[in-house]
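note to self: dont lose this again. the chain is below, predicted strucutre after it. 151 aa total, dont forget to put it in the shared folder this time
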Amino acid sequence: MKQRFAILLAALWWGSLTGVGFVVVPLLFMHLGSPAAAGAMAAKLFSAQTWLSTACAMLMLLVFNKKDDPATALYAAAATKFVVAGLLLALLVEFGVAPRIVSARAEGANLKLWHGLGSAMYLGQWLCAGLSLWRLSRPAAGAASAASSPD
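---
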């Protein structure tokens, strides 16, 4: 049950990152009248995405923290490092890079640098969430052999 909940959280995390970063924000820039309006809306969406990412990652870490279930320990160990890395990337983008993008946009300096760094960190977070989902959804060795047995 815990593994299914963790998989659901990882799928929500990865899917929301995919939807916002690779579908919604590009559509904003294609269909809104000005890049400034699209950028302002994208910033709000990325901020909301950070809080969703934080909630998913923290809940997954809480699920992994249960020491009473040895089955949980097997899949948790494989995904924990990616969950923590993705969580740190999300928070770094929100509190480190996003304010620099806003100030660079106002001053007109280093916008390209900060935007590129933020995009790279978002991609890193997307990869961490995807690897967490991949690791968590891998069937256990005992489950695969039990499923193939004819009883």
